[in-house]
Design a protein that fits this description.
With about 700 residues, this protein is of the alpha+beta class. α5 packs across α6. The two termini are about 30 Å apart.
Length: about 700
């Protein structure tokens, strides 16, 4: 039932016909990442749902022409650590990249501007978006090894890369030099660093005489403790005895890079915050002491927050309402802020006198931008979406902080809380937004609480269509940066140690209660959703607490013991710090695993799962679904062939969103305006 009041028509929340369809989320949508610049051209990586999630290296020539460098079916994506990253580099007119299907490094000679001009003269019908006819050729042998974090040697004809190979036990990681001379497909591979569980960031000094890199060992994750190494290289490029210059078990180093003058700069959390530091003859110098994080959790290779720019360092850091850009004077250590209309800045690199990064804001989709630091002027080179939304259709987030902790949350499970006083947690609140519809005056909207993955990660206040999908249909959304999230210093990040499944859940519950107390949302229609680690937070909240009335787990964890036994190497000891050493703390794992406490779960759940997921195997969801079905609770399970950890194919992304909306409609008693293929919900009614 709808009626018109003033300039808007009122309609029950959840039933709004949104101007944003599920197809709009995918039409032309691109993932933009890893910008770089070389010889006047700009390069970046695009992930394309419309092409089954294929990742393409794209080039923008100096004259502004944009073209794909990789012909189909080549797919630039690394599986080192499963999350990959930094899977390409450009040097001396060649593009080198890791191809997803076989994980070999390929080489592609790039067409020069002169070649392109000649082609244009002889063929006026040439497609400006096509790269050329060259086909990438394999560089590394077909030996099963995987590669990431590619770096070109400025002195020698070779690449440096992080390698990973399967063994009888867990995979072995190392840093290797890969010759660019010799027979294609049979490049000589020489190890230059080994002996630790993990490696990252091989970086050469400008003169090619020194090599630095990061390493860490089980059970640490790279945001817990890493060691920064340096070694001198001989004439053949082999390192001498490496020496540890920073880091350790309780200090996390991020993005080591060499300045043009030969100094080694990096980000360290030695002070309790991820601050910029330099290695000097006198020791470690904190270049810019601030209670702010200039670093990020190293989930992928090649993540960047700073770059050398002229005689300064251009750097980004996180504040309560978003990321900031500044110029650090290396002589005075003074910081000049550069005002920008963005709240998220990723992948900062230099492009001559300008800077490049992928930027986003509450009213802007992620876009590749070129920034003039002197004026703050931004030029958009590529947008992740061409979708045009009316301003009234965009829900703008309100940054929240609220009391969190065990007393704010409450629990059904004895002993599930951790001791401690109530603290502060953070989040972004989005009210329902529609250009022509509003909710009835006597009705409050349903609330969807989102818990980010990781769990060592963070959410940001940017235009996210997967949030706007819900708000434009009449849902309120709370996106929570629970204790353990990054961007708020090491102490806040470490709050999750020993408390996963407890403090994150408490903060999601506390945020929902805070909004109920403010009169913003309907206390009888509270739902929680999350993917990966956020899926575990969702299931724990539904099992051990009774606030939420429904939930959605996207490739989430129900059995922590199974995760500890079955997950991949990179995260195989992650739970040691989040929960406790395995198997010594097996009882704690069982206490916090929703699968062992299904009798306490009293509300409906939908599970969405990729069938080729190696990080959280499908058995996790399937075991939980079977238990809920046997108990008689409404439960839905939607599985996707060909999907791994996260959905990349356009049809599957659309189906997942629509299935979740359909599920909430059935559970909360409203009919979505969208035409949705029904989802089988077991135990919802007789005959299911």
């Amino acid at each position: 039932m709808t009626k018109t009041e003033g300039t808007k028509t009122t309609a029950p929340y959840g039933t709004w016909r949104s101007p944003l369809t599920a197809d709009d989320l995918l039409r032309g949508a691109l993932g933009l990442a890893f910008p770089s610049a070389n010889a006047g051209s700009i390069y970046w990586m695009e992930s394309r749902p419309a092409e089954g999630g294929r990742c393409v290296i794209v080039r923008r020539r100096p004259d502004g022409r944009i073209e794909d460098c990789l012909p189909a079916p080549f797919n630039a994506r690394s599986r080192v650590h499963e999350y990959g990253g930094a899977c390409y580099t450009v040097a001396a007119g060649w593009l080198y990249f890791v191809n997803f299907s076989d994980q070999r490094i390929y080489a592609l000679e790039l067409e020069t501007d002169a070649d392109a001009d000649a082609d244009a003269d002889t063929d006026a019908d040439t497609d400006a978006d096509a790269a050329g006819t060259a086909i990438p050729q394999p560089l590394t042998p077909a030996d099963g090894r995987r590669w990431a974090d590619l770096v070109a040697d400025p002195v020698r004809p070779r690449l440096l890369a992080v390698g990973e190979e399967d063994t009888d036990g867990e995979p072995r990681n190392f840093i290797a030099a890969i010759s660019l001379e010799g027979t294609p497909g049979a490049a000589t591979v020489t190890e230059v660093a080994a002996g630790h569980d993990f490696f990252a960031a091989p970086r050469l000094s400008p003169d090619g005489a020194n090599l630095s890199w990061l390493s860490w060992d089980h059970p640490a994750m790279p945001w817990d403790g890493t060691t920064l190494w340096c070694a001198s290289l001989d004439a053949a490029g082999q390192p001498g005895e490496p020496r540890a210059v920073a880091g350790g078990n309780d200090e996390a180093i991020f993005q080591p890079e060499w300045l043009p003058d030969g100094r080694l700069v990096f980000v360290t959390d030695r002070s309790g915050w991820w601050n910029l530091a330099a290695l000097t003859p006198g020791g470690l110098e904190n270049l810019l002491p601030m209670n702010a994080d200039f670093g990020l959790p190293l989930w992928q290779f090649g993540m960047r927050t700073w770059t050398a720019w002229k005689d300064r360092i251009a750097c980004t850091w996180h504040e309560a309402d978003g990321d900031r850009l500044g110029l650090l004077d290396l002589r005075s250590n003074g910081l000049e802020r550069v005002p920008l209309p963005y709240t998220q800045l990723n992948g900062l690199v230099i492009d001559g006198a300008s800077l490049l990064c992928v930027a986003a804001a509450p009213d802007r989709f992620p876009e590749l931008v070129r920034i003039d630091p002197a004026s703050g002027r931004c030029e958009v080179l590529r947008s992740s979406s061409e979708l045009a939304l009316e301003s009234g259709a965009i829900a703008v987030p309100e940054a929240l902080d609220f009391a969190a902790g065990s007393q704010a949350a409450g629990s059904k499970a004895a002993g599930s809380q951790v001791a401690g006083r109530s603290e502060i947690a953070y989040g972004y609140f989005y009210r329902p937004a529609h250009p022509s519809l509003s909710g009835p005056a006597d009705e409050r909207p349903p609330l969807l609480v989102m818990s980010h993955g990781g769990p060592t990660a963070a959410t940001a206040a940017v235009l996210n269509l997967k949030v706007q999908f819900w708000t434009s249909r009449g849902f309120a959304v709370l996106d929570v940066n629970y204790r353990g999230s990054t961007g708020y210093g090491r102490a806040y990040r470490d709050r999750l140690k020993g408390g996963w499944g407890v403090v994150d859940v408490e903060d999601c519950i506390a945020g929902a209660r805070y909004l109920v107390e403010r009169g913003e949302v309907d206390p009888e229609r509270l739902a929680i959703r999350g993917s990966s680690a956020g899926g575990y937070t969702t299931l724990a909240a539904l099992t051990f607490h009774d606030l939420f009335r429904a939930g959605a787990s996207l490739y989430g964890v129900g059995d922590l013991e199974a995760l500890a036994r079955d997950t991949h190497k990179f995260e195989s000891r992650y739970l040691d710090s989040l929960i406790g050493p395995w198997p010594q703390a097996a009882e704690v794992y069982r206490q916090r695993s929703p699968i062992h406490h299904v009798e306490q779960l009293q509300c409906p759940v939908i599970f969405l799962q990729g069938l080729e997921d190696r990080i959280v195997p499908p058995s996790q969801a399937e075991t939980m679904v079977a238990a809920l079905e046997a108990k008689g609770l409404p439960v839905a399970y939607v599985a996707f062939e060909g999907e791994q950890h996260g959905f990349r194919q356009a049809a599957n992304i659309r189906r997942a969103l629509e299935a979740e909306l359909y599920f909430y409609g059935r559970i909360f008693g409203f009919t979505p305006a969208d035409a949705i293929e029904p989802v089988l919900i077991r135990n919802l009614e007789s005959g299911d």
